[in-house]
Amino acid sequence: MKQGGEEIYVGPLGKHGCHLIEYFEAVKGVSKIKGGYNPATWMLEVTTTSQEAALGVSFPEIYKNSELYRRNKTMIEELGKPAPGSKDLYFPAQYSKSFVIQCMACLWKQHWSYWRNPPYTLVRLFFTTFIALMLGSMFWGLGSKTSNSQDLFNAMGSMYGAVLFLGVQNAGSVQPVVDIERTVFYRERAAGMYSAMAYAFAQVAIEIPHIFIQAVIYGVIVYSMIGFQWTVAKFFWYLFFMYFTLLYFTFYGMMAVGVTPNQHIASIVSSAFYAIWNLFSGFIIPRPSIPIWWRWYYWACPVAWTLYGLVVSQFGDITELISTGEKHETVQQFLLDYFGFKHSFLGVVASMMVVFTVLFAFIFAFSIKVFNFQRR
What we know:
Elements: H1 18-25, H2 39-46, H3 49-55, H4 59-64, H5 67-79, H6 99-115, H7 118-138, H8 149-190, H9 196-205, H10 207-226, H11 232-258, H12 263-279, H13 295-300, H14 302-315, E1 321-323, E2 328-330, H15 331-339, H16 346-370
Antiparallel strand pairs: 1-2
Helix pairs in contact: 6-9, 7-8, 7-10, 8-11, 8-12, 8-14, 9-16, 10-11, 11-12, 11-14, 11-16, 14-16
């Protein structure tokens, strides 16, 4: 083909390009090929636009008026006619394998992709361990102190710091990984290898065990160093809320990439929401102190639900008296008066953590299926 997509030769090459050479040497004015010269190089040289102008010919027109062109058209017409008794091709599904097989194949591929990416997996665990040791040493033994309101603020501060440090780090670190994987997905989906939902399932599922390990490492270190009450229920609740917090932050980072063209725009968009979540988390300004016209966003802020669950699960059932400066009241009553936290609301808080996690994962899967930011 010449520049512009016009055909100048369609046919067999022959041994050492003999048929190709014979065809072009038959054109009046074309120089003969020299002995030992590369036929492909020679063909490109003799069919350039400047050579056409010098010879006063048009190679596309020569081909369209040639016997070779007529033979090709006849062959196409013959091959285009179905054989007697033949049936049209029919495929029961778009993909050769079932959705479950596609999910398993994509999950296996993602497993090896993460295994071969230690800068992402191991560095995240190292950062988690470092933050756990730093916060544990900074708030050493404060989890068992409930003599005054400041002790509760300090314990809540350890939870608040961990949520922001680890959550934002998880969301930010997963974005370049998802951005690269999405580029590969575009190519493989175009080849009909698997569906968008299978890829999204694998990308979400592969993070679940990795984040579980991360939550366990952080939970065991911090829970023991800060000295929260060692009961099975409270330790479980602490791990539960930290695990789902890291999950929804990670899925939020994936979702931000899914709805934007690239990781750079995703990081800008997601950073704006981190600041808003920080403001409405209930730590800087408790929910009862937030103006009524903005209080609705407190309930839409996932970080607020995390802090609600962490604080209430650890201190919401304590009936010991504490000093609040002006009076003495139980820890349970102080949390209700100052933060609006109820221990009886713990089940709803746990459910909302699951809802946010599933919601962000669903939006990521939906965006992968609907949006296509591929540049051709």
